[in-house]
Amino acid sequence: MTTTVPRFEELAAPSHWRTVDFISDLHLQASEPATVAAFEHYLATTSADALFILGDLFEVWVGDDALLESGSFEARACAALKAAAQRRAVYFMHGNRDFLAGTAFLQHCGLTGLADPTVLVFGTERFVLSHGDLLCLQDVEYQQFRVQARSAPWQQQFLAQPLATRRAQARGIRQESEARKQSGAVYADVDGPAAAAWLQAAGAHTLIHGHTHRPADHALAPGLQRVVLSDWDAAALPPRLETLRLSGAGLERLPLAPMCK
Ligand code: MN
Question: What's the domain count of the chain?
Fold first, then answer.
């Protein structure tokens, strides 16, 4: 399969950033309060100078108007993000679950949108940041849906429906996806040669991505690696709560403590 290499946005880390955190795939939802609490605790206590959220922060995002529903789950999560963003830079990249999070959401929460992919220049190092779904080339059906769902006409049509209808549709899609998971479906992984081609085109050595929920460090070619972020599940045994921290010393996985009430 031929690989199309996307255009890379570039972001230079200001020199005063000492530590940068990367997280993804928290899949925040009202029915998982332990993970929500762990995230709120993390936001309130992290010492990172900048936070990069690389997609699927939310299990689903059905439109920015959900923020206006008083007492909504989305409004609560946004309040926590806003408080964190007042103390440090917080960047938000779309995942395949929360790709409908729009400019109103970003403004409301004080976040800066991040294109997928983006090259982060930190000191003398260049890192490619991506959610990761674009690189799961074997899932042809999903890639076709992705093109459609990222188009303006599709989004306008979806968002034109009443909020309650959108919420109901999202529940239906989620049930289908749960059933698929239960049936033991095998999910596509990131395509190694494509990931290496991205890195070469971007002049970078390390790709940081989420999406696959398979946290690991993979060597792609001599000098090229991809580092996969962990998903979050505070209720799992053992809990999966982790941030990837970048500092002058390199990349390090930091386990986070679950909230003990
Ligand atoms: Mn994803």
Answer: 1
Distances in whole angstroms, Cα of residue 31 to Cα of each of 37, 59, 98, 230: 12, 10, 17, 20
**Weakest-pLDDT range from 48-52, 107-111, 147-151, 257-261:** 257-261
For residue 117, report the distance from its CA to the centre of ligand 1, in Å: 14
57: CA distance to ligand 1 center in Å? Answer: 9
pLDDT in tens, 233-256: 999 999 999 999 999 999 999 999
Whether residue 157 contacts residue 231, with contact meaning beta carbons closer than 8 Å, is answered with no
How much is the pTM?
Answer: 0.95
User: Does 1 map to a domain?
Assistant: no
Which residues lie at CB < 5 A from ion ligand 1?
Answer: 56, 95-96, 211
CATH number of the domain at 172, please: 3.60.21.10
Residue 3 lies in a domain: no
